[in-house]
Amino acid sequence: MYLVKNLINGEAVASTSGWESAIFNPATGEQIGTVGLSSKDEVNAAVAVAKAAQPAWGATSPAKRARVMFTFAALLRERADDVAREISREHGKTHDDALGEVARALEVVEFASAAPELLKGEFSRNVGPGIDTHSERQPLGVVAGITPFNFPAMVPMWMFPMAIACGNSFVLKPSERDPSAALFVSELLLEAGLPAGILNVVHGDKSAVDTLLDHPDIKAVSFVGSTPIAEYVYRRGTDSAKRVQALGGAKNHMIIMPDADMDQAADALMGAGYGSAGERCMAVSVAVPIGEDTATRLVDALKPKVEALKIGPSSDSSAEMGPVITAEAKNRIVSLIDSGVEQGAELVVDGRDFSLQGYENGYFLGGSLFDKVRPDMDIYKTEIFGPVLSVLEPQTFDSAVELINEHEYGNGTAIFTRNGDAARKFSMGIEVGMVGVNVPIPVPVAFHSFGGWKRSAFGSHGIYGPEAVHFYTRLKTTTTRWPEGISQGASFTFPS
Ligand code: NAD
Which of 95, 302, 322, 341 has the fewest Cβ atoms within 10 Å of its own Cβ atom? Predict the structure, then answer.
């Protein structure tokens, strides 16, 4: 049993609030650790440290700040296995999947190393007689990040490398269910040369989040998590005049056109539907076959693959997916599967009673596959966030696009086809933020930005990439005159 501490001003500090939360190994169901939940005072103290440290960091040359990110990237690469183990121990995902998470986070750190280029301003000479104007982007001050359980290292690193490279200090509140990986990578960033106080980690629950949202010294909040909390964070944060980006849940559809390569589409659905036990905001949870024949061929291709899924703990290198995060998550997923059966969907593969020898108390589920799912069913409307794939009753191309556009979520979507016209029409007309054409999980690379539409994201900026530079900085425009000679006298008309 271990205790997860806060990281304040470069030091590991145990919370003295007396509140704590248990951390479980999802593969065994055993409690392996405890995380102290910070009080309001402890969060305030972290913000005060971040506020005191920021001006010097903000005034440090962007090239020096970037050098810290270069070293951090090198350390992350060197320690990728250790980070992946930290992730898997508390989250349960397979080691390879955790390594993939580290690799995607590393891309963001590499992009953040380009801060000197990204922060370059604009200059216009002679906007008036003897007058020049330049625009620059300045850091905001202290910013906060609040992150979910499903990518315990990557999502924090979607945020703090960019915020810090832009000259801000950062207070991170990771998920209390698997807090160790975020702490581990934060310590690596300090090891890379980040001055103490620029990145602080406070663990906690709603109370810590509310303290950050209301704190007058926090200028911006990046949030990733479920939609109800994202909306709450957005409203409460913007109420106190903060800049907020709040990314929420998803229900990602993949259209399979009659001309698609069915093997390729089915394999893509397996990885996108069941990888990480379906606990990804970019997981594909709805397959939309176009036409009866496509639907039949699709389910025939999927069924044996779902039945053959290799499920195991993260220590099993042959496992394709691990357990889900908690016993409550498992129960919730099972009751959603029950509702699908009750509401008339055809459960082609039933993963509810899956049990793994030696891990009977783990939170494992088998892969489940539904066919003939209708849009009015709960399994269609709700984000299940588990290893459950729904094949919708066959659609036409137009009805499929209409359904996707009507869904409350708009995070990711994909189309599998050989038809360029259909693909182009799809990517132009679909009301979803991230679109894949023959790519099942179209998570943008770090030099583009990530973000959904509709109730999958609140706020106007995507996360990481060029949008992050705008989110974590504010524009200042200076107009300068070095006039020759003396004043030409007061002018009371608007300057033109
Ligand atoms: P969650 O919303 O339960 O928790 C996210 C964060 O909010 C955690 O740090 C948690 O401590 C905090 N929180 C929880 N309840 C709160 C409350 N009442 N008030 C204030 N703060 C609260 O999400 P989760 O279960 O950890 O993560 C899974 C969800 O995250 C899924 O819905 C998934 O789609 C979503 N997600 C979205 C993206 C994206 O990019 N859009 C990426 C990853 C995960």
Answer: 341
